[in-house]
Design goal:
Elements (H helix, E strand, L loop, with lengths): L12 E6 L2 E6 L10 H12 L7 E6 L18 H19 L5 E5 L2 E3 L1 H8 L2 E5 L3 E3 L2 H4 L7 H9 L1 H10 L3 E2 H7 L4 E3 L4 H13 L3 H16 L2 H16 L2 H11 L10
Parallel strand pairs: 2-3, 3-4, 4-6, 5-7, 6-9
Antiparallel strand pairs: 1-2, 7-8
Helix pairs in contact: 1-2, 3-5, 5-6, 9-10
The structure holds 3-methylmercaptopropionate-CoA (MMPA-CoA).
């Protein structure tokens, strides 16, 4: 199915294809999908080697929980240099998720905690089932986020809410997650994969240059000054509009052959 014959080597991921969508399941349910060195390396590898015809990725977790975060057994007795490199390894893996070739939809259920929330924050569209809950137990464990959470999570919910989660151990439920912007979609228990796949299939139909612009330009423009952001926007919009695919889609609309925008 996927990643150029890598399936056997990626034994902590369950990988399947649904047309242009590649589905990656974290597959360590006995350890609540805790992210070990092997799992982070496999995630990184999978995202670096997506087959060329994949246009969207769906991520989910096997078992009762999406992900229990960092495999804490791996933290014990790591030296300072090793710990910095370990965190940088997570950054590289999650950058490959956020700034890869295709958008990523993630389906969340049960515990979405610590590094599990950091992984979710690196994805582009988050769907939460009713059972999902979000926590940053790093404070209780005497550690800090290391998988990009301090950069990505405040951009979703603000520094104040993340501070509260880390200092008091506050856990947000699926309702709060939706209200505060941790997830864009909320579905009943058991319906996450259906919704996630439906969304990933829609995403896979987006023109590749539009998907690229959304993934790569939008977050950068958000960090730029308004003047620089507007200029980047002009460049990106000219690049997108000049692709043959855009010309084809615009032509189809003008001939009355493309879908209109309708209320959902
Ligand atoms: C683990 C881990 C883990 C479970 N590392 N082994 N993350 C945390 O602090 C979350 C810690 N985990 C939990 O709070 C709970 O396990 C859950 C709420 C996620 C799930 O509870 P439950 O009752 O369904 O399962 P369990 O019985 O607690 O766990 C089942 C097994 O998974 C058990 O091992 P076993 O050998 O006794 O069967 C647990 O020890 C194991 N397990 N979670 C290692 N996290 C880059 S920096 C990121 C920093 C962080 O992510 S900090 C947050 C770490």
């Amino acid at each position: 199915v996927p990643a150029d014959g890598l399936t056997d080597a990626l034994d902590l991921l369950q990988i399947s294809r649904h047309g242009a969508v590649l589905h990656l399941r974290l597959n360590r349910p006995a350890k609540r999908n805790a992210i070990s060195d092997a799992l982070i390396a496999q995630l990184h590898t999978a995202f670096l080697h997506l087959p060329a015809d994949v246009r969207a990725v769906l991520v989910s977790g096997e078992g009762e929980h999406f992900c229990a975060g960092l495999d804490l057994s791996a933290l014990v007795q790591r030296d300072i240099g090793g710990a910095v490199l370990h965190s940088r390894g997570w950054h590289a893996a999650f950058d490959a998720v956020q700034f890869g070739r295709v958008p990523v939809v993630v389906v969340l259920h049960g515990a979405v905690v610590g590094g599990g929330l950091e992984l979710a924050a690196a994805c582009h569209i988050r769907v939460a089932e009713d059972s999902a809950y979000f926590g940053l137990p790093e404070g209780q464990r005497g550690i800090f986020v290391g998988g990009g959470g301090s950069v990505r999570i405040p951009r979703l919910i603000g520094v104040a809410r993340m501070t509260d989660m880390m200092l008091t151990g506050r856990v947000y439920d699926a309702d709060e997650g939706e209200r505060y912007g941790l997830v864009q979609y909320r579905v009943p228990a058991g319906e996450g994969l259906k919704k996630g796949l439906e969304l990933a299939q829609k995403v896979a139909e987006a023109a590749p240059m539009t998907a690229f612009a959304v993934m790569h330009a939008l977050p950068r423009i958000a960090e730029q000054s308004p003047a620089e952001g507007l200029f980047t926007e002009s460049l990106m919009s000219a690049v997108a509009a000049s692709t043959p695919e855009a010309q084809e889609r615009l032509g189809a609309f003008l001939k009355g052959k493309a879908a209109k925008v309708v209320k959902s």
